[in-house]
Amino acid sequence: MLFRSRLRWTPDDRLLLGGGDQPEQPVRSRDAVVVQRTGDLMYGLLTMYPAIAGLRPAYGWHASYGETADRLMYVGAHRNFPRHLFALGGAPESATGAFVAARILLRAIQGGTEKGDELFGWAR
After folding, report:
1. Does position 75 have pLDDT exceeding 70, yes or no?
2. If DSSP codes are grouped into helix, strand and coil, which group holds residue 105?
3. pTM above the 0.85 mark?
4. Which of 60, 54, 67, 52 is nearest to 17 (CA)?
């Protein structure tokens, strides 16, 4: 379960664990799913750090995000929105993806492109 999780320490020395990703659930069952997934994440963390046995999570929450079919982000203009530029998809914690998207968008604003920019376009 923890292979797609993200661990971070907060400035006030608390551990923030994100993960438990799954397809979108109906609103009526979302609260129960959050409790179940939070428990799963805590169990996975407990297997790595047995010293935390007995600790309970302070919070659990649901957060939606999107992912493209081929897992590459869409970056650039869309034919239905010619005056807009987009950067959608990619890994939520990816600083590298954000950098690539920023460079492609900057080139689009300046009126130029580079070989490979079309790989992230809407027409792929």
Report:
1. yes
2. helix
3. no
4. 60
